[in-house]
Amino acid sequence: MSEYIPNPMDWVADQVELYExxxxxxxxxxxxxxxPCIIVTNTGWKTGAIxxxxxxRVVDGENYILVASWxxxxxxxxxxxxxxxxxxxxxxxxxxxxxARVTEVxxxxxxxxxxxxxxxxxxxxxxxxxxxxxxxxxxxxxPTG
Length: 145
Prior knowledge:
Blueprint: H1 10-21, E1 37-43, E2 50-56, E3 59-60, E4 63-67, H2 78-85, E5 88-93, E6 96-104, H3 108-121, H4 124-130, E7 138-143
Antiparallel strand pairs: 1-2, 1-5, 3-4, 4-7, 5-6, 6-7
């Protein structure tokens, strides 16, 4: 089994620790947003280590929409590369924990549909897109179990 390496950003590591140590009953909103988040566990593409990232909870039916916004930074977040290299992840949504397979959405119409759902859930995504030249990637995570 691979080693878990906490995120080097303290607030991210603290969010994951609170969420998981409480069994999914605390730390359920991302920072100061008061909006629900999930924890995505994946494999580091360079290290092979276990990585955990809190992301906004955005759903489309049984599937989860993962938006690689990184607050509109010029580059993709590191977890983007992890998901591209290894699409099998674990998602914790409050007390539910399940396996999922992620796919980056390439079809423009489907990406727009999912983007609109994401922006409705968290309107700052549009602000992030407006401040960067890159097209913010959108993934769909489909439960596998």
